[in-house]
Specification:
single chain; alpha/beta; eight-stranded mixed β-sheet; two-stranded parallel ribbon; 10 helices; 37% helix
């Protein structure tokens, strides 16, 4: 079987459509249909991807010469990390390894795992837990959650809060598909009554992004939980020192330990295929992440 035929196999697995895969390979659909084994097994696709990466690595080694970082790195990031980490990360990456531009892809965890499997991206920044797909992983940091409440809410006068104190509140959730939504429901399963399949008047708003939900909190529609890096620096200043913005109407409260249970956190990791051969690129990316400010999180080595 030739490398071209292996590309066809991976393309069909990725596109899940002969016509789309043919377009991606720049061949006619009959050509692709004849050249592709059906049905495609997961093991065949993984092995095909591995062979293609090894072949590509040979070309990269020859092209890079003495610079192992030369060439772009395709990085996937989940929606609840991207806006808060990527601006600083891109600056650090340009400063430290300008010969390795980051090609960025923001998406849901499930989609990024699929893109990793099929080679559409080289690596991804994800939050655990997620299905074990045999990926190589490096822990980056543990990130605490914070409660976001309207500044006029009685809870806003407190210095911290417990999960139990939130149980009677109207909780604003991210929509289905966001892993952070699942993290929130793990902390407070009672909030499932606000999910899209709930019934009755307790059903509430579901947002497509954390920033949308924050605007709803500022408007007094309810409360929510957010990851620490999403909290603007200005929002943690005293009210008299804040800039005028929606964040003026939100109070962010740390969640304290209760009944011996630690405050809720999520572990953020860097994941890549074990067959990916650009080890120096992964190391450079990790160093760039560690060089970011990352306020309020616990860095992991």
């Amino acid at each position: 079987m030739t490398l071209t035929e292996l590309k066809y196999i991976v393309a069909v697995a990725r596109e899940k459509h002969f016509g789309h895969a043919a377009d991606a390979c720049y061949v006619s659909q009959p050509t692709l249909s004849v050249a592709t084994v059906t049905p495609l097994g997961e093991e065949i696709v993984r092995q095909a991807q591995s062979v293609l990466e090894q072949a590509a690595a040979i070309k990269e080694i020859a092209k890079r010469g003495k610079d192992p970082l030369a060439g772009p790195l395709t990085l996937g990031v989940i929606y609840t990390i991207g806006p808060y980490l990527l601006p600083d990360l891109v600056r650090q990456a340009i400063k430290r390894s300008p010969q390795m531009p980051l090609m960025l892809q923001e998406n849901f965890t499930v989609k990024l795992l699929e893109m990793l499997r099929t080679g559409e991206i080289d690596c991804a920044i994800l939050a655990e837990p997620f299905p074990d797909t045999g990926l190589a992983m490096a822990p980056l940091y543990d990130e605490p959650f914070m409660a976001a409440v309207p500044s006029t809410h009685p809870l806003a006068t407190q210095k911290s809060i417990t999960a139990a104190e939130l149980k009677s509140e109207t909780m604003l959730l991210l929509g289905a598909g966001h892993c952070f939504r699942d993290h929130v429901l793990e902390v407070c399963p009672e909030f499932a009554r606000f999910a899209s399949n709930a019934e009755g008047i307790r059903k509430s708003f579901e947002g497509s992004s954390l920033e949308t939900i924050k605007h709803m909190v500022a408007a007094g529609m309810g409360v929510t939980l957010v990851p620490r890096l999403s909290v603007p620096r200005d929002a943690l200043l005293t009210v008299s020192r804040r800039r005028k913005s929606d964040e003026t109407y939100i109070r962010y409260l740390p969640i304290r330990e209760e009944d011996g249970s630690p405050p809720p956190t999520r572990r953020v990791v860097l994941a890549w295929r074990r067959s990916f051969t650009r080890y120096e690129a992964i190391a450079a990316l990790r160093n760039a992440i560690y060089a970011c400010e990352l306020p309020g999180v616990t860095r992991l080595s």
